[in-house]
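Input (structure):
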């Protein structure tokens, strides 16, 4: 049961659907082969970040004297900043200018920062601390593998579609809509962290 709980928790934090939308915004002008390669690179990065968080996250927070509640608030602030940048059209998922070439400004950072955000890392650390204590965080690791695999399927399905250049208006609307979702998730993470902080005080 705890493995199912961990998987559902991480799926809600990584949000494969929104991750696929962000990936599509980044990759819409690239070839199918490039999309596939970039999807694999992004998945490896997400898996490594979350795996490290599960293995050493609790110990690192203890070393620096940082509580999970404060870390959750910090994660929320990062997501709010990302969402606000996307709403303004200055986020990493904006379309590169034609003069700059198709690969100019191309970065998977927005996707990795969303899927492996401080909010997601907080969830991983919480699972590792709650279910396994100081032992090997098997529950968190299994949840990570399953959640990242589901996200990988979503990214690869997106990558198999032919990239079609959309109109500037539709692209901007999509980017701002995703920014609103990221912004809302950031506020949710932050407010929950604040509530838990004062409840524990």
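Output (sequence):
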């Amino acid at each position: 049961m705890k493995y199912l709980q961990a998987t559902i928790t991480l799926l809600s934090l990584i949000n494969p659907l929104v991750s696929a939308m962000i990936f599509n915004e980044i990759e819409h002008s690239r070839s199918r082969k490039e999309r596939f390669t970039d999807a694999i690179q992004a998945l490896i990065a997400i898996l490594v970040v979350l795996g490290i968080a599960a293995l050493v996250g609790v110990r690192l927070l203890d070393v620096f004297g940082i509580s999970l509640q404060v870390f959750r608030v910090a994660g929320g602030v990062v997501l709010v900043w990302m969402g606000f940048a996307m709403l303004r059209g200055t986020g990493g998922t904006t379309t590169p200018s034609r003069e700059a070439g198709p690969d100019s400004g191309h970065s998977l950072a927005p996707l990795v920062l969303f899927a492996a955000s401080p909010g997601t890392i907080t969830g991983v650390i919480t699972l590792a601390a709650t279910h396994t204590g100081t032992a090997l965080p098997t529950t968190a690791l299994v949840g990570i593998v399953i959640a990242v695999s589901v996200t990988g399927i979503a990214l690869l399905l997106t990558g198999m579609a032919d990239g079609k250049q959309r109109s500037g208006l539709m692209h901007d609307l999509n980017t701002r809509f995703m920014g609103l979702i990221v912004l809302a998730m950031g506020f949710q993470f932050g407010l929950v962290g604040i509530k838990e902080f004062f409840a524990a005080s």
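Notes: The chain has one domain: 21-200. The helical segments are 2-14, 16-27, 32-64, 68-88, 109-115, 118-132, 138-160, 168-200.
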